[in-house]
Specification:
By secondary structure, the protein is mainly α. The chain contains 19 helices and four strands. Strands 1-2 form a two-stranded antiparallel sheet. The relative contact order is 0.12.
Length: 573
């Protein structure tokens, strides 16, 4: 347990140290101030604008920005759908090994999934996707990640600007996100993965004979290119069916650590960017502190449950799960020995908080309450680091709820950063808070009460089966993609309903966030007074953490009680 805590402390410390220079760099990039790559990238940027006909000086209001975001994502989804449907007629399609049919509903689900950074995978990568399809999915990881970062930056501008009707230009933000951020970092990260042993080729699958005389098919392909951007762009869709548990995708503990840093550092750095662009750096550090506290609390809770093991499994097998001088103990079912409990839980915390469904252990094999923490992380909606761009506005929207409630409790004027939080501003914030519970709970109810939904429960029923269904819709609505794996989700019912959850989680929430940003951008900035709640204090820090816990409990405690909590109690009998 001490080693687990040490790894977690080192990880959060690295994220905090990198947040400052990267946050400052992001602020300079998106404010158009000089940066070191400018001399190389400016000609490329100008050429893109000339070819595409984009006017980089054009300012977009929240509605135009939202429409550009939706239209861009739709184009990505349509292109993906075409490639997936036609993959059997394109190069590098191997019919011997591509044994999962690419049906229209699976292609639709996958196209929506990757264009929304959800990367929910109702298929096994190496048995479904050709190399052309995998490269198309890699392209979508870049484009969808850049679009998410652009929306996050536009949201920050809404709080930074005064008496302005514009939030920037979506096309400019996407281009700069791609050229100045994602491409150079992903290139370096992919080279690092190749050094660690991850393949990057177009070779045929290798068929090997094991020592026992069995036949083993070893997949090849451009793995390193996809694997790094899936984490950096907070996408998560893996090249292989077992994702980061595969030794070709995630071969070493060092590769695993760097992958988790790729998920969390940029979203964490956006808190510093927020403080820099709004001129309120203490506010930015408060946001980072809340992210870190929620992240650490969840990771420690999962560690405690996984280290204690599963009592029912231990009894049935006559095993000892306590840590002794001879064994580390705990629940190692579904976990890779090269990562252990510490590396597995760190990944579970980073991916479930970070809107990145990359995983290196099977969550279906976690203890029920150990798995309840990643589930709760997704249900809360990307509050601890979160997705690239989406995490910052998820936390700020929760902060605005806290400002409103705190002002009511102590009789202070509800303002944030010198801008009034009135009735007009509060309504979209409330709708934002209710959107995820509404879609997740509604779709879960439909699934558990319909034959089409329960047909996916091929291995488990009861509380565990209920958790699998809830997990699927929570993951989809959070644009995460994390899965418990034993739910058979490749059906028309789940391919359609999970896609609906993805669309709501991506576009409804982004649209509401941009609307709020537009409302704040139009306001002037008032001078701080004693009548206004201090949002950069330790008291407000504690209040915000408390509101996150209370809102989460009020929204989801009932379904958590029916799922993982009941599952844990059954195991204790």
């Amino acid at each position: 347990m001490a080693a687990d805590v040490f790894l977690l402390a080192v990880f959060v410390a690295i994220v905090a140290l990198l947040a400052v220079p990267l946050g400052a760099y992001l602020a300079r990039v998106f404010e158009g101030r000089p940066t070191w790559p400018d001399r190389v990238l400016w000609p490329v940027e100008r050429a893109i604008y000339r070819v595409s006909g984009v006017d980089p000086e054009h300012e977009m209001g929240w509605s135009e920005y939202s429409l550009a975001f939706v239209g861009f994502s739709a184009i990505v989804a349509i292109l993906l759908f075409i490639v997936l449907i036609l993959q059997s007629r394109l190069p590098w399609f191997d019919p011997e090994h591509m044994v999962t049919p690419m049906t229209p509903d699976l292609a639709f689900n996958t196209a929506v999934s990757f264009s929304t950074t959800t990367t929910w995978q109702a298929y096994g990568g190496e048995t479904t996707m050709s190399y052309v399809s995998q490269m198309a999915l890699t392209m979508a990881n870049f484009l969808a990640g850049a679009a998410g970062l652009a929306v996050g930056i536009a949201f920050i501008r809404g709080f930074a600007r005064t008496r302005s009707s514009g939030l920037g230009n979506f096309w400019v933000d996407v281009v700069r996100a791609m050229l100045w951020v994602l491409l150079p970092v992903a290139l370096a990260g992919s080279v690092f993965l190749v050094w660690q042993g991850v393949p990057a080729n177009l070779n045929d699958f290798v068929v090997a004979t094991t020592a026992e005389g069995g036949r083993q098919v070893i997949a090849q392909g451009p793995v390193a290119v996809l694997e790094f951007i899936k984490n950096l762009g907070t996408n998560g869709g893996g090249f292989f069916n077992v994702n980061g548990a595969h030794p070709y995708a995630n071969p070493t503990p060092l590769a695993n650590l760097v992958g988790m840093l790729a998920i969390t550092v940029l979203p964490g750095a956006l808190t510093y960017t927020f403080g820099r662009m709004t001129g309120r750096q203490r506010e930015g550090w408060l946001l980072f502190g809340v992210m870190a506290v929620v992240f650490v609390a969840g990771a420690l809770t999962t560690t405690a449950f996984e280290q204690s093991g599963s009592p029912d499994v231990a009894r049935a097998a006559g095993m000892e799960t306590a840590a002794t001088s001879d064994q580390p103990g705990g629940n190692m079912e579904g976990k890779e020995v090269r990562f252990g409990i510490a590396g597995s839980v760190l990944t579970a915390a980073a991916t479930s908080n970070g809107a990145t469904g990359s995983f290196n252990s099977m969550h279906d094999s976690y203890t029920p309450l150990g798995n309840a923490v990643p589930l709760a992380n997704m249900l809360l909606g990307e509050l601890a680091f979160g997705g690239l761009g989406t995490g910052i506005y998820s936390l700020v929207m929760m902060l605005l709820i806290t400002v409103f409630l705190g002002g009511l409790m102590v009789g202070r004027v509800p303002e944030y950063l010198g801008k009034k939080l009135g009735q007009v501003e509060t309504k979209p914030v409330v709708f934002y808070t209710l959107a995820v519970p509404g879609i997740v709970l509604a779709l879960t109810a439909i699934a558990v009460t319909s034959d089409a939904g329960t047909a996916g429960l091929t291995a488990n029923g009861g509380a565990h089966g209920f958790t699998q269904i809830l997990f699927a819709y929570a993951s989809s609505a959070a644009n995460n993609g994390l899965t418990m794996a034993s739910l058979n989700a490749n059906s028309v019912f789940y391919n359609v309903t999970t896609a609906i959850a993805m669309l709501v989680g991506r576009f409804a929430l982004a649209g509401l966030a941009l609307y709020v940003a537009g409302l704040f951008a139009r306001q002037g900035r008032r001078a701080p007074t004693t009548a206004v709640l201090n949002t950069a204090s330790w008291t407000f820090f504690g209040l915000l953490v408390g509101v996150i816990a209370i809102v989460g409990a009020l929204s989801f405690f009932a379904v958590l009680a029916l799922g993982p909590i009941a599952d844990q109690l059954v195991g204790l009998q």
